Amino acid sequence: MSCGEPHETDCSEVLDHLYEFLDSEMPDVDRDKFQHHFEECSPCLEKYGLEQAVKKLVKRCCGHDDVPSDLRAKVMGRIDLIRSGQTVPEHDVTKAPAAPQES
């Protein structure tokens, strides 16, 4: 997605890191860049508003469950693999490995 206008921070970079912005998981310097981008780019601001609304809805409906730290680490690891373009394992990395079967 792009509005077709040149920006200091590219629309694709903003959208790739949108959840880090929403979750305040980025350095303040990057947050400032993204905030400036939203001020001048209405398509990205619209996408930000939509994702923010979805996040609030999910939190309201499902926000009472604690996520195990190991699950969060596995999911974040998989996201990092996808972002880096590396091959992602076909198996579900969120499940514990199967116990070996006895003969």
Automatic annotation (TrEMBL):
Domain Putative zinc-finger: 11-44
InterPro entries: Anit_sigma_mycothiol_RsrA, Znf_put
Domain of life: Bacteria
One Pfam family in the UniProt entry: zf-HC2
NCBIfam families referenced in this protein's UniProt entry, alphabetically: antisig_RsrA
Name listed for the protein in its UniProt record: Anti-sigma factor RsrA
The encoding gene: rsrA
